[in-house]
Amino acid sequence: MGAMIRAMRWRFDPLSLAWAVALFLVLLLLATVGARWGWLRSFFGDVLAVVWVYFVFKTAIGARVLPLALAALGVGLAVELGQYLAATWHLHIPNRALRIVLGSTADWWDVLAYTIGFAGVLAIEGLRGGFLRAVRPRASAP
Fold it and tell me: By residue range, what is the domain housing residue 70?
């Protein structure tokens, strides 16, 4: 694992930024317009959230697919753990927008959605041929 972390480099990837922005807009639409869409909004939104976090990471970090995808999955699982601990300790997020973004109820279906998002990233990158290819980051300006 240490070798994977050492292989990461700072960089800027405009294509990943474009994907991150596009996915953010879809997530924004799901959170607002799709408020009445039930499971589609919540489950599919959680799947897309992990993919979005992956592309946000990929925008700034040059690394192999697996460590970035695992980091994105870790963010989703950390949010879910935070929801569980908040419910256990009877904590409440007062900001409504933050409650919508982070969620307020821990659910195993969310963990499944995050895992599907993780698998989706691996599948997409595998189809693109990027899964086994090492990233050769360009030097970034200080």
Answer: 11-128
